[in-house]
Structures are given as C-alpha cells and as structure tokens.
C-alpha cells in the first residue's frame, strides 16, 4: 500500500496554480487599474519561486533515482503547450508565428524544470552549499549579459535554479513540522502582510522592479537602475524566498476539496493560457465585462480565471491531458 499523499503539498499547489491563472488573466489590465497592478506585483513576489521550490521538493526521488522517464513528461508538456497555444493563436487570433527556441510564454516552466532536474542529477554529488552559492553567483552575473533572455528560456533557467535546488535540498517533513508551530505561522503572516502593504503604498516604485521578479531579461530592463542590478536582484531574491516560504507555511495541512484539485495542477498549467486566449482575447469577454461594470470590469476577469482553474482541474480533463503528455504518469502520480 502506497504512502498517503500529504494534503499540505496539494493544497499549496492548488493555491499557487490559482495565482498563476489569475496573474496571466489580469496581465492585460495591469496599466488600467492600480488595484490590479498591486495584485499582479503581489502575485509575482512568490507564485513561480514557490512553485519551483515545491517542484524541487517533489522531484527529489526522481532525481536521486535518475528516473529519466519522468523528466520526459516536462519536455512533452512544454511541446504540448507550445503547439496548443500556436493552434489557438492561429484559429482565434490569426497569428501564425511558431518559435520553439524563443520561450516567452508559459511553456518556460516545463522546459526549465526539465533542465533543472537534469542538471541536479549531476550536481547532487557535490556539496549543496557550494552548488547553491555557485548558482546564486551565476544568476547574479547573468543579468549583465544582454544577449541572454527568452531564447531557450536561458535567463529564467539561471535566475530560478536556486529556488529549485533549495527545494531539492529541503527535508519536506521538517518543513511540515516547522510550519505547524504557531509562531512560525504568525511570522509568515507578518511577512505576507508587510509585503502587501509596501506594494499597495509604493505601487509605482515597486513596479519598476517587475523584470527582476519575472527573471526573463537582463539588468538593462531596469533602465537607469541597471548599474545597481546585482544588488537589486539580491534584494529581489530575499523578498521572493521570504514570500515563497511564508505562503507555503501559512497554507494549512487540512484535507479538503482543494486537496484533490491540487493533485491535478498539470492539466491546469497545460490548458489555462490557451483558454485565456480564447475567452479574453478571442471571444472578447472584456467587452462583456465592461458592459456589466464599466469601472470594475478588470476584477470580473478574476472570476473568469477562477472558473478556468476549476474547469481545467476536473478529473476527466486531467486524465485526458495526462494521457496526451505522458500515459505512464497516471500510473505513478498516486504513489508520490
């Protein structure tokens, strides 16, 4: 009999993928609303770093046992997303461009995780402290190379690898125990509230650091602040690590309906952006939202994002996507 899944991790995955969907949905309205801009910035302080930390934790056995067939899932998932988005853009938006090498879309995560795991299979033999310091140094240095960007998602591979390696090194049971202590939950709550307040009060000032949170471009994207890029990236790392662990800690280890949905994040990730293209840009739901509420139509898009989240997490959808990406995945995922 397999070990029972820990509710905490599926709950965390559901919350994080929810913020991923909301973040992608509201991206089109960031310049139209201060509230939307604040929410967007808040989401980007933790959603992908935390997701990558969790990915590193969950892939520890895969990496240690060198299960290459599971890595193949991420490669095929990236290709699936690329092709599905191309199909949607072709038929809905009449855009006919397909470029597998310029990874400036949601497929970057799948390709990056494939590289992270493959690299870690080799690096795990060395001292974890040495690898973490080296990966941080490379991430800080890569910002000075203006040629490294979305091509083969190289910039994000360097910038986000420290989060993956941190997750790989963390003992998930110890983190679970650490998160149970009331004082740690309280501190996590304080971190989240303080960051949220700073973003709300200093909205425009924080927004200029968004390229550092996204990790896909060089320090040149900071304009006049590019000379301080390395120090600003260090500060961004501090915020992202603190926020990531704060969010992970504060999410309860309680089994509920979101626990089940949290085990199906693969289908949400694979399909949500294509649905956003269809509904927001193709069907033009924005026009409908404007008729319903001319002043607050942007916030109605969040409701649509939540609907997409739940629909793409339905069991039949999850099974269909899993079979397309990697049929063997369905046989193993319940064990881990």
Task: State the gist of this model.
It is built from 19 helices and no strands.
Please give a structural write-up:
This protein has 336 residues and is mainly alpha-helical. The protein has 19 helices and no strands. The chain has helices at 7-26, 34-44, 47-58, 60-64, 68-92, 108-123, 128-142, 154-169, 172-180, 182-201, 203-207, 210-214, 229-250, 257-262, 265-282, 285-292, 297-312, 315-325, 329-332. α1 crosses α17. The chain starts with 6 loop residues before the first helix and ends with a helix. Residues 332-336 have low confidence and may be disordered.
Order of helices and strands: HHHHHHHHHHHHHHHHHHH
Q: Number of DSSP helices?
A: 19
Helix content class: over 70%
If you average the pLDDT, what whole number results?
A: 92
Broad structural category: mainly alpha
What is the tally of beta strands?
Answer: 0
Can you tell me the residue ranges where pLDDT is under 50 for at least 5 consecutive residues? 332-336
Outline type? globular
Describe the largest sheet. Answer: none
Beta-strand residue percentage:
under 5%
What is the rounded Rg? 20 Å
For the termini, the CA-CA separation is 12 Å
List keywords for this structure.
single chain; 336 residues; mainly alpha; 19 helices
Question: Which helices and strands, and how do they pair?
Answer:
Blueprint lengths: L6 H20 L7 H11 L2 H12 L1 H5 L3 H25 L15 H16 L4 H15 L11 H16 L2 H9 L1 H20 L1 H5 L2 H5 L14 H22 L6 H6 L2 H18 L2 H8 L4 H16 L2 H11 L3 H4 L4
Helix pairs in contact: 1-2, 1-3, 1-15, 1-17, 2-10, 3-8, 3-13, 5-6, 5-15, 6-8, 7-8, 10-13, 15-17, 15-18, 16-17
């Amino acid at each position: 009999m397999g070990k029972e899944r820990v509710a905490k991790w599926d709950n965390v995955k559901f919350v994080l993928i929810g913020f991923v969907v909301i973040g992608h949905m509201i991206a089109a309205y960031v310049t139209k609303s201060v509230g939307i801009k604040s929410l967007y910035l808040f989401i980007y302080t933790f959603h992908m770093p935390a997701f990558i930390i969790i990915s590193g934790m969950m892939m520890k056995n895969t990496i240690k046992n060198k299960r290459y067939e599971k890595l193949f899932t991420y490669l095929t998932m990236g290709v699936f997303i690329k092709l599905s988005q191309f199909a949607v853009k072709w038929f809905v938006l009449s855009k006919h461009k397909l470029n597998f090498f310029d990874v400036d879309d949601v497929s970057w995560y799948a390709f990056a995780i494939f590289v992270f795991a493959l690299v870690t299979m080799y690096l795990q033999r060395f001292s974890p402290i040495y690898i973490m310091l080296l990966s941080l140094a490379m991430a800080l240095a890569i910002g000075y190379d203006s040629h490294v960007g979305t091509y083969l998602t190289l910039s994000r591979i360097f910038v986000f690898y420290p989060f993956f390696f941190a997750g790989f090194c963390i003992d998930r049971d110890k983190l679970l125990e650490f998160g149970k202590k009331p004082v740690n939950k309280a501190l996590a709550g304080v971190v989240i509230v303080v960051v949220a307040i700073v973003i709300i009060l200093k909205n425009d000032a924080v927004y200029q650091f968004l390229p550092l949170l996204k990790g896909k471009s060089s320090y040149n994207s900071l304009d006049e602040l590019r000379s301080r890029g390395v120090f600003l990236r260090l500060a961004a790392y501090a915020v992202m690590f603190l926020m990531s662990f704060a969010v992970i800690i504060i999410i309860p280890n309680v089994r509920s309906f979101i626990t089940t949905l949290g085990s199906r994040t693969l289908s949400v990730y694979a399909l949500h952006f294509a649905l956003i293209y269809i509904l927001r840009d193709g069907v033009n739901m924005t026009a409908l939202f404007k008729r319903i509420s001319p002043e607050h139509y942007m916030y109605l898009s969040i409701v649509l994002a939540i609907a997409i989240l739940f629909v793409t997490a339905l069991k039949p959808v999850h099974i269909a996507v899993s079979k397309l990406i990697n049929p063997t995945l369905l046989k193993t995922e319940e064990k881990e």
